[in-house]
């Protein structure tokens, strides 16, 4: 990011070499990250990867073991939460049950010594902003989970914080409400422009809401990128495997653009692995292309049999078996059109192509799930 003058824009939030130890266990191992002003960033990763620990360190709720945090040019590394400038929403709604909705939202504002009328006006604006006008007199228990979470959001932004922190805010809600609230939170964030960090283990949530996703695993950052980069250009096998569906095939590297799958030589994306190295080829089911006619002579084409067809609404996922794929098989997503045109069904034989530019090559034989 650069300004019209050409200098790099200064990040709004800067995390430098952050380490967090719990006894001998390192929950965060040397994390560095820049977040720009107004960005919506998601921390995404499996349970225990350290995303909540990182969020809590940024909030000052847990102190890091070493490393620093800067916000708006200010070193906040050692400040208590009360002296940092953020609003936070947790997974559990954490509203005060004995206060009305309006008093919940007004909570922080009341401590500013504002006039009653001014507070009432701001609370009305905030309730309007989260789509719950006229609900101020109710108590939290009279609202649905989704509504309570919107109130929690209103409360978190009431003081116009520089930073909005969201710790799995949607995970306690049912699927329909969750998807709806995704859009609402995202559009609210755009309108008020607050720099936002959200922790989630839900890849779809991260892909649909984030400007940039930080994928974490075992206390390290695996990749930082836009949703499209993370999905289309995964930097590691872990990222490739964690986000979306991915076929993985064990191969041996031949040269910078070729690998051998059993007897078959495949052209793949350029990589830097050494010839002879064990590697994993990864391709998304939707990148597997059915070929009309019989073109197995060309590169990267395989004769396969459909062993199972799985209906997934807008598309079908076919399990393809073929000598080259061994027991693993291959998953391929076919649109309804392709199904009709090619007459695909269980037992059918066909040819598929694995396009070289969609064949990612990663070091090693597989993903190490826990360490
Ligand atoms: P989840 O989605 O399950 O919350 P997470 O990615 O947010 O996972 P963290 O809560 O940040 O994970 O925890 C990271 C690691 O640190 C985990 O292995 C966890 O067991 C450990 N951990 C977290 N808090 C403590 C603590 N207070 N004492 C000891 N270990 C802890």
From TrEMBL:
<keyword id="KW-0997">Cell inner membrane</keyword>
<keyword id="KW-1278">Translocase</keyword>
<dbReference type="InterPro" id="IPR050093">
    <property type="entry name" value="ABC_SmlMolc_Importer"/>
</dbReference>
<dbReference type="InterPro" id="IPR017871">
    <property type="entry name" value="ABC_transporter-like_CS"/>
</dbReference>
<dbReference type="GO" id="GO:0022857">
    <property type="term" value="F:transmembrane transporter activity"/>
</dbReference>
<keyword id="KW-0813">Transport</keyword>
<keyword id="KW-0547">Nucleotide-binding</keyword>
<dbReference type="InterPro" id="IPR003593">
    <property type="entry name" value="AAA+_ATPase"/>
</dbReference>
<dbReference type="InterPro" id="IPR012340">
    <property type="entry name" value="NA-bd_OB-fold"/>
</dbReference>
<dbReference type="InterPro" id="IPR013611">
    <property type="entry name" value="Transp-assoc_OB_typ2"/>
</dbReference>
<dbReference type="GO" id="GO:0043190">
    <property type="term" value="C:ATP-binding cassette (ABC) transporter complex"/>
</dbReference>
<dbReference type="GO" id="GO:0016887">
    <property type="term" value="F:ATP hydrolysis activity"/>
</dbReference>
<keyword id="KW-0472">Membrane</keyword>
<dbReference type="GO" id="GO:0015697">
    <property type="term" value="P:quaternary ammonium group transport"/>
</dbReference>
<dbReference type="InterPro" id="IPR003439">
    <property type="entry name" value="ABC_transporter-like_ATP-bd"/>
</dbReference>
<dbReference type="InterPro" id="IPR027417">
    <property type="entry name" value="P-loop_NTPase"/>
</dbReference>
<dbReference type="GO" id="GO:0005524">
    <property type="term" value="F:ATP binding"/>
</dbReference>
<keyword id="KW-0067">ATP-binding</keyword>
<dbReference type="InterPro" id="IPR008995">
    <property type="entry name" value="Mo/tungstate-bd_C_term_dom"/>
</dbReference>
<dbReference type="InterPro" id="IPR017666">
    <property type="entry name" value="AminoethylPonate_ABC_PhnT2"/>
</dbReference>
<keyword id="KW-1003">Cell membrane</keyword>
<protein>
    <submittedName>
        <fullName>Fe(3+) ions import ATP-binding protein FbpC</fullName>
    </submittedName>
</protein>
<dbReference type="Pfam" id="PF08402">
    <property type="entry name" value="TOBE_2"/>
</dbReference>
<feature type="domain" description="ABC transporter">
    <location>
        <begin position="13"/>
        <end position="243"/>
    </location>
</feature>
<dbReference type="Pfam" id="PF00005">
    <property type="entry name" value="ABC_tran"/>
</dbReference>
């Amino acid at each position: 990011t650069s300004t019209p003058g050409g200098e790099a824009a200064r990040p709004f939030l800067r995390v430098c070499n952050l380490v967090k130890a719990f006894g001998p266990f390192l929950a965060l191992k040397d994390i560095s990250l820049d977040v720009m002003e107004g960005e919506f960033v998601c921390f995404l990763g499996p349970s225990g990867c350290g995303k909540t620990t990182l969020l809590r360190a940024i909030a000052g709720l847990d102190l890091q073991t070493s490393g620093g945090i800067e916000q708006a040019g200010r070193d906040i590394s050692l400040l208590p939460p009360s002296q940092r400038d953020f609003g936070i929403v947790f997974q559990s709604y954490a509203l005060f049950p004995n206060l009305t909705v309006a008093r919940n939202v007004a909570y922080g504002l009341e401590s500013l010594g504002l006039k009653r009328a001014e507070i009432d006006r701001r609370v009305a604006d905030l309730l309007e902003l989260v789509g719950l006008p006229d609900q101020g007199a109710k108590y939290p228990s009279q609202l649905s989970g989704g509504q309570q979470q919107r109130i929690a959001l209103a409360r978190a932004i009431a003081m116009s914080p520089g930073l909005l922190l969201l710790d799995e805010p949607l995970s306690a809600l049912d699927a329909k409400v969750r998807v709806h609230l995704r859009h609402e939170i995202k559009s609210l964030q755009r309108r008020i422009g607050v720099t936002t960090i959200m922790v989630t283990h839900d890849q779809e949530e991260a892909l649909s809401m984030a400007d940039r996703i930080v994928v974490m695993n075992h206390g390290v950052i695996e990749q930082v990128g836009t949703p499209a980069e993370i999905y289309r250009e995964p930097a590691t096998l872990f990222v490739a495997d964690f986000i979306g569906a991915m076929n993985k095939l064990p191969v041996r590297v031949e040269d910078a653009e070729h690998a051998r799958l059993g007897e078959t030589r495949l052209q793949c994306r350029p990589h830097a692995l050494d010839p002879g190295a064990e590697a994993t080829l990864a391709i998304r089911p939707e990148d597997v292309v059915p070929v009309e006619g019989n073109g197995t002579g060309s590169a990267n084409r395989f004769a396969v049999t459909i062993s199972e067809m799985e209906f997934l609404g807008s598309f079908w996922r076919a399990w393809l078996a073929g000598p080259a794929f061994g027991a693993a098989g291959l998953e391929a997503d076919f649109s309804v059109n392709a199904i009709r045109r090619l007459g695909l069904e269980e037992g059918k034989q066909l040819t598929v192509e694995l396009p070289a530019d969609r064949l990612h090559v990663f070091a090693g034989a597989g993903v190490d799930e826990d360490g």
